[in-house]
């Protein structure tokens, strides 16, 4: 069963490159021209000619895909079509000891025999007239041999895939089955009882499975070192090869010669008198037509293994698993009634084999390639009646409250906060709209009774009036998301956001302090409930370059290149009477209060109709000073934002003023703060 056959037409033997000058994928995508002569064989691995995963994949191609492939192969030849009927190529015309066939492989039909299931192949339903593509696809599925394997063997044995005017003998000996090279001059000695296209394809596939089941009965064993001939002529010698898998052992049993370096250097051409070509050509055809011979990724293998071990998924919607580059990478395989995914990150494979609303929604969200990520369970849990019908995914949890609300995806960070807030039994209710998430994981999502904002480990419940005001002030682009609840200070209130402190002076007016040295110093002094009091006016920049901001208990100043200094009201009034402060010359360095809603934030759903919940009382945290020192009149939006704290009242003192020293790199700037007592 070597590909060097004296009975085959010599016009095919050394002109293989003409057969594959242009190659296309199954779906019509071009693979490109054949590489330079030696390049196509340069990665031939005698220990593993092809991986087991690829060789034994009985679901690699459907009948339709095989037919498309055959049509493409024929169209890519020099003739570009079947030429039977042309001058000198009439069907039935004698050609040596055989004759020209009536059709090419693309359109030929054959009588196939029905076969019962056996230890190596499943049952096969025969037909009085069956296309070559149908036979190849059905035999592959029945025996667990890749249709790609069968196509490559048809080409390397008899050039049937690309021959534009094949002979009857080529079909009769299609796979080289039962045709050992034991005749005169190493010619094929074929068993006449095993001739015929359908018989050859089935018996060859069956034989390959026998080799795998009983390797010890043959001369070439997997997982050990073997002595392999270079050529049918023993005078060419032998080589030692460790065979690393079943598929490679089967190929050596089927064609018992290893291509020498001369054959590999020749690529598609001839080597020397001791060269053999069968296994080299198997490698070359597979690589040119289907890509790498060295197998699929672990992800593909895991997905296939789960599919084979658990029936019920239905027919695959693609010929092979799909590579997933999103969400950490992996693979997915979609079926009529489900999907299987494998995550490279978790190294876990999960499958859902029942059609359900969860599966449908997941597929519509692009499966593992979409925002939900990979499966992390084998299906939904809980019940609608109990309010806990959910399914977990890599990036979040899908919640199904009822058919009215429908399926809602809650990102992991959002879901954690929702659980902490007692899920649907708390102030939020069920999620009723998709979350609008940022790249850093922060976001906002609408629930039945309020909105939920998350940022890092912080979250905030936001009522509809609060959301409307947040939007009017610039929303996420200007303010960022809220980091906690709104806190009252007398008749006024404040709320920290990702980008600063928003102080509500009245129902219609507010002051926003952006992150930076001013806010850091203010938080260090206790924030709105501390020694500075509440903001009274926005910051202003004066003619001498200083920046000032008035609070209810004094004035905070920052000269150019200096730290922030707070002057209590009594001292501030004294300074005002003795030295007139410079006149403000510029607008406040903060962005002015907007009057319209910026269009750049993510679209959010409409107003909830349920009454707004009360806000919980926040737990203050110790603030942390910022690490960057911007120029006066500027804010650093990247500086960490501390929570407000409530320091103990300080006794009035005539001692030296307190010192605030924000750190700048490895140096320190000393800032003098005079703190008055707080009642």
Detailed description of the structure:
- Residues 628-638 have a biased composition (Acidic residues).
- Residues 608-623 have a biased composition (Pro residues).
- This is LGFP repeat-containing protein.
- Residues 648-659 have a biased composition (Low complexity).
- This protein has 679 residues and is of the alpha+beta class.
- The chain folds into three domains: 10-290, no CATH class; 298-400, no CATH class; 436-679, no CATH class.
- Helices cover 23% and strands 19% of the residues.
- It contains 18 helices and 32 strands.
- Helix 6 (147-158) packs across helix 11 and helix 8 packs across helix 9 (246-254).
- The protein is elongated and about 120 Å long.
Query: Which overall shape is indicated by the principal axes computed on the Cα atoms?
Result: elongated
Gyration radius, rounded? 39 Å
* Average pLDDT over all residues: 82
**If strands are numbered along the chain, what order do they take across the biggest sheet?**
27-26-25-24-28
Protein name: LGFP repeat-containing protein
Region (Disordered): 552-668
Biased composition (Pro residues): 608-623
Biased composition (Acidic residues): 628-638
Short summary of the structure?
With 679 residues, this protein is α+β, with helices and mostly antiparallel strands. It folds into 3 domains: 10-290, no CATH class; 298-400, no CATH class; 436-679, no CATH class.
Characteristic terms for this protein:
4-stranded antiparallel beta sheet; alpha+beta; elongated; LGFP repeat-containing protein
């Amino acid at each position: 069963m070597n590909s060097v056959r004296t009975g085959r037409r010599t016009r095919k033997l050394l002109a293989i490159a003409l057969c594959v000058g242009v190659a296309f994928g199954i779906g019509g995508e071009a693979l490109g021209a054949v590489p330079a002569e030696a390049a196509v064989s340069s990665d031939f691995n005698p220990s593993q000619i092809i991986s087991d995963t690829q060789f034994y994949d009985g679901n690699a191609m459907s009948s339709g895909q095989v037919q498309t492939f055959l049509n493409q192969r024929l169209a890519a030849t020099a003739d570009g079509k079947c030429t039977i009927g042309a001058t000198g190529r009439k069907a039935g015309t004698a050609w040596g000891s055989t004759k020209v066939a009536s059709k090419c492989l693309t359109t030929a039909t054959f009588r196939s025999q029905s076969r019962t299931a056996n230890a190596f192949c499943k049952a096969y339903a025969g037909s009085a007239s069956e296309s070559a593509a149908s036979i190849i696809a059905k035999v592959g599925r029945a025996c667990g041999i890749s249709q790609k394997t069968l196509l490559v063997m048809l080409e390397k044995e008899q050039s049937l895939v690309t021959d534009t005017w094949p002979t009857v003998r080529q079909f009769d000996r299609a796979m080289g089955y039962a045709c050992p090279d034991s005749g005169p001059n190493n010619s094929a000695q074929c068993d006449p009882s095993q001739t015929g296209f359908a018989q050859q394809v089935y018996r060859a596939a069956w034989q390959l499975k026998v080799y795998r089941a009983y390797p010890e009965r043959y001369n070439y064993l997997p997982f050990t070192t073997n002595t392999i001939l270079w050529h049918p002529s023993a005078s060419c010698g032998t080589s030692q090869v460790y065979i690393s898998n079943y598929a490679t052992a089967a190929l050596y049993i089927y064609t018992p010669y290893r291509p020498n370096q001369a054959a590999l250097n020749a690529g598609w051409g001839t080597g020397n008198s001791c060269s053999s070509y069968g296994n080299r050509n198997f490698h070359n055809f597979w690589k040119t037509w289907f890509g790498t011979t060295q197998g699929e990724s672990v992800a593909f293998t895991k997905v296939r293994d789960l599919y084979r071990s658990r029936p019920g998924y239905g027919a695959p919607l693609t010929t092979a698993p799909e590579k997933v580059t999103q969400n950490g990478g992996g693979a997915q395989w979609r079926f009529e009634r489900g999907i299987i995914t494998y995550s490279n990150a978790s190294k876990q494979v999960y499958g859902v084999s029942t059609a359900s609303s969860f599966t449908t929604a997941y597929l519509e969200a692009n499966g593992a390639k979409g925002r939900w990520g990979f499966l992390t369970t084998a299906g939904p849990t809980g019940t609608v009646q109990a309010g806990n019908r959910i399914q977990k995914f890599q990036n979040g949890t899908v919640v199904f409250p009822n058919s009215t609300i429908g399926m809602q995806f809650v990102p992991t960070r959002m879901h954690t906060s929702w659980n902490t807030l007692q899920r649907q039994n708390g102030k939020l209710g069920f999620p009723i709209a998709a979350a609008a998430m940022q790249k850093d994981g922060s976001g906002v999502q609408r629930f039945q009774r309020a909105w939920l904002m998350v940022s890092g480990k912080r979250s905030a419940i936001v009522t509809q009036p609060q959301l409307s005001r947040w939007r009017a002030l610039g929303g996420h682009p200007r303010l960022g998301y809220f980091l906690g609840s709104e806190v009252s200070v007398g008749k006024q209130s404040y709320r920290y956001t990702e980008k600063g402190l928003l102080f509500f002076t009245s129902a219609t007016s507010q002051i926003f302090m952006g992150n930076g040295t001013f806010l850091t110093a203010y938080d260090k002094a206790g924030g709105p409930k501390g020694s500075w009091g509440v903001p009274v006016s926005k910051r202003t920049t004066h003619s001498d370059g200083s920046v000032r901001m008035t609070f209810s208990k004094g004035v905070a100043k920052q000269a150019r290149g200096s730290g922030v200094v707070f002057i209590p009201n009594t001292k501030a009034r004294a300074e005002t009477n003795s030295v007139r402060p410079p006149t403000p010359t510029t607008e406040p360095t903060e962005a002015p209060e907007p009057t319209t809603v910026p269009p750049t934030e993510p679209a959010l759903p409409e107003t909830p109709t349920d009454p707004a919940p009360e806000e919980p009382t926040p737990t203050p945290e110790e603030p942390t000073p910022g690490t960057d020192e911007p120029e006066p009149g500027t804010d650093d939006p990247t500086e960490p934002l501390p929570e407000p704290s409530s320091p103990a009242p300080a006794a009035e003192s005539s001692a030296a003023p307190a010192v605030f020293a924000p750190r700048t790199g490895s140096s320190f700037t000393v800032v003098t703060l005079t703190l008055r007592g707080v009642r």
